[in-house]
Amino acid sequence: MKRIFELTHGDVMTMSREELLKVIKASEGRTVMAETVISVQPLIYGVSNPETAAAFGADMITLNAFDFEYPFIFGIDNIDLYLSKGHQVLEDINKRIKENKSNPNYIRNARSIIGRFLGVNLEPVPEDTNYPEGRKLNEDNLKRAAVLGFDYVVITGNPNTGVTAGTVLKGIDTAAGILKDKVIIIAGKMHGAGKENIYNPSILKDFVKAGADVVMIPAPGTVPGMDISLAKRQIETIHEEGALAMTAMGTSQEGSEESVIEQFALMSKMAGADIQHIGDAGYAGMAFPENIMKLSVTIRGKRHTYRRMAYSSRK
Fold this sequence. Notes:
This protein has one domain (4-77, 105-310): Alpha-Beta Barrel (TIM Barrel). The chain contains eleven helices and eight strands. It has helices spanning 9-14, 17-26, 49-55, 87-101, 106-114, 139-148, 165-179, 201-210, 228-240, 258-271, 289-310; strands at residues 31-37, 60-64, 117-122, 152-155, 184-188, 214-218, 244-249, 275-278. Strand 3, helix 6 (139-148) and strand 4 form a beta-alpha-beta unit. The mean pLDDT is 94.
């Protein structure tokens, strides 16, 4: 069986949910996920943030702020803001959004361009929260995620959304009933999201029992009190329940020096993480590309990092 950094473009385009989970497990803690905001102009003009993250070593790309009501990825949907003028920009974007909404292969086509597994954040915000409908975790958006061809969904909360362990658990239950064996379910919290951090390992057991394939916890050093010992206990609990574990850098420290990223990566690997996530808080909706590469090099070395970077288009 190939490891995730050995997969070609053709592998990514044809791999099933079950195969991907097996590949991640076989990669022994050497899977890199990068999160990118796709609702802003990308870091590099003419290249989408997901493409840049892929070029610097990410295996899995999570789209943050993707709106199922208004599907549009800056950099993939090539609206030239330098050449467009005034109202023409909005007209061009709205025209593209309308086209994307009627295209069942929109995400599959984007995945072919990016060459990596694609996921989307869906947020189980409290019912009374004023939040974009296209970004909420609900039945309609879960069904759209499956139809469009996302490889996985991430059930979590952006800052100040009021997402709690309870709403995450409810979201997992809803997702499991709809996605079943079609799409990987990743769930958890990388920070408080305006409420509490999760420290009790028993809550993570509930996530797995509800249907999470991968449970997310903060990387050691990213939230108060989360050290290697606590992360290791949480990950052992997740593994005992039969799920994979992912540590997340989602506290804007993904915009720190490379030496900080290296520490997070080593501590997460020592704690037993199967996947390591790096967030989007650098400049223009993604971590510094060098930090994505530093994460990759730290957990799997230059040889496998360069292989991952070079396999972008091989069939």
